[in-house]
Structure formats: C-alpha cells, structure tokens
Design a protein that fits this description.
Helices cover 46% and strands 10% of the residues. The protein is of the alpha/beta class. The protein has a single domain (2-272), classed as Rossmann fold. It has a seven-stranded parallel beta sheet, sandwiched between helices. Strand 3, helix 3 and strand 4 form a beta-alpha-beta unit. It is globular, with a radius of gyration of 18 Å.
Length: 278
C-alpha cells in the first residue's frame, strides 16, 4: 500500500495510520516533494506535475510494479491523476475524504490560496471548531480526546508545514488539467466520514469519485469526519483490509509474472521518507 498525504504534505501527521496499516501489510508513505524534509526533486515550473512524477518514483524505488494507492484529502488529486496516466501500475485505489479532479475551490479556499499568510491565523483559530466535534465523536472519553490531542499536536509541531507551500499546492492543482479517468478499471473504494462531521472536505465532493469511477464502491467510517484515519486508525485499517486483499488477489489471478511483487506481508516495517529510506 502507498499512502499519499494531504495538502499539509507531511507523512508524519498520519503516523498512527501508517502504524495501523503496517501491522497488516507493507505500507509506504512519504512527504510531498516540495517539503524541505523530502529528498525528491521539485521544479516549481512543473507545478502539480511534480507530485505525479514523485509518486511514480516512489513506486519505482519501493520495487512496486503495482500497488493499492491511498489518497488522503488533497492526496486524492495526486492519486487520481497518477491512476489516469498509469492505470497499469494501480492494483486498487482508495480515496479517503479526498478531493476529486472536478474540485473547484470555494471563496474561502481561494482567499487562503491567494493570501496564505493573511488567512492562516483565521484558519488556525477556526480549526478547533471544525475538528473538535469529530474528535469527540470518534473518541467519546475525555481521556481519549486528551491523548489524541497531545499526540497529534506533537506530530504537527515536530513536522511543521508551511501555509505558503499549502497555498501553492492548491494553486498548482487549480491550474492543472486533469486527465480523464475512463481508462482506470482497478477496484476503487471511496471512503468518507459522516456528512455532518467532516467540515474540511464535504463527503459529497469525495463521493464524486463514484460518478467518475462507476465501478467504485462507497464506505463510511462511522463516527468520524475528515481525520478518521488518525482518530480511528485501526478501524480505518480494518475497513481497508478486505479491499486490499481482494485487489492483490485479483492481481495474482491475472497470471502476471510480476503479480507477486508488492503484495503486502504481515509485519512489514513501514517506510516513510524522513523515517526510513527506501
């Protein structure tokens, strides 16, 4: 499995998810190439193309001919574009509270992208109102909320992101012309939180993938919103487990001499750029 991060660009923010998936199979995650912690090249003139090229390079260096690729939030744009252009390298797709390629930013998002340093204080101040209801829903005990808040805050503080880089990623996506997904036949899982709890990416936007990929199926991570993969990482991993197993079974049954490469094996150590180099 390859886990592609959201617009903050840091795999470390998803560490609980990486750990939960790694207990069930091999998982590779990484930071986006315009992060200072990344060793991958990033050419500003290439814009969004950088992220697609990086994902291809990640698979190559991990020795994966095909993989189940998981796009989280903004990462869904990267995964959908990669799948459209390289369908032969996709064993399966998971879009977790993800933006679809038909996404059009709203007025607030356009303001953040244009004026990130002006908009970031308001973004930070309103984050608790957006996220606290879903955290309380996913972790109903006071102790659970407190432990998650401390742990996640530590991940954020030790893997700082940049409002300017986040805004640039959004602008790159808006300027990019996304490829058609018509050639993609790999199984796809469209996973959201509950409608009233995701105040970051409306689940109706993520469900747009059901129209773009008619063979895709939908799933809901109950009691969660946008960040259910980190508030409930084991539930997220358990939801993915049968889907991933089915994808790799489908690949193996195809009879390809390369079909066995990249199949998850229990107990594999996670690989994340910045944690363990490939």
């Amino acid at each position: 499995m390859v886990l592609v991060p959201g617009i903050q660009g840091r795999w470390e923010w998803m560490r609980p998810t990486v750990d939960a998936l790694a207990r069930r199979g091999r998982v590779v995650s990484y930071s986006l190439c315009d992060e200072p912690s990344s060793d991958d090249p990033c050419a500003p003139d290439l814009g969004f193309e950088n992220f697609v090229l990086q994902l291809e390079s990640v698979l190559d260096r991990a020795g994966l001919d095909r993989a189940v690729i998981i796009g989280v939030s903004f990462g869904g744009l990267i995964v959908s574009e990669f799948a459209a252009r390289h369908p032969e390298r996709v064993a399966g797709l998971v879009f977790a509270s993800a933006l679809p390629p038909t996404w059009v930013p709203n007025r607030r998002e356009r303001f953040y992208m244009q004026w990130p340093m002006l908009g970031s204080p308001a973004f930070i101040l309103t984050s608790p109102a957006r996220l606290l209801p879903e955290v309380v829903s996913a972790l109903p005990s006071v102790g659970g909320v407190a432990r998650f808040t401390v742990t996640h805050a530590w991940s954020v503080l030790t893997a700082l992101t940049s409002p300017a880089r986040m805004a640039r990623r959004g602008r790159w996506a808006v300027a990019h012309r996304f490829a058609d997904l018509g050639a993609v036949t790999a199984p796809a899982l469209v996973l959201t939180g509950e409608d009233q709890l995701d105040q970051v990416v409306a689940p109706r936007l993520t469900r747009e993938f059901l129209r773009l990929l008619p063979h895709a199926r939908a799933g809901i991570l109950k009691g969660t919103g946008h960040i259910g993969l980190v508030t409930q990482p084991d539930a997220f991993a358990e939801t993915l487990a049968p889907f991933v197993a089915g994808c790799h079974g489908r690949t193996a049954s195809a009879g390809s001499p390369q079909a066995g490469r990249g199949v998850p094996t229990p107990g594999s150590v996670r690989a994340g750029y910045g944690a363990a180099r490939l």
